[in-house]
């Protein structure tokens, strides 16, 4: 024996289930938005001729910063 009438348009049980689902279901969101932070850097793999790499590495620590500065200057971004 079934309690309640599931075909009734104003079925309290269905209304309660729908309300529960609406309150507990996370809405589907689109793709995550990329946030660009000023000065943020990205890890890349780059093939550079050995003599160019040695030029930037010869002064020791900070060679990546020096290379980045040279690339920015060459690109007109400084």
TrEMBL record:
Pfam hit, one: BrnA_antitoxin
InterPro entries hit by this protein: BrnA_antitoxin
Name used for this protein in its record: BrnA antitoxin family protein
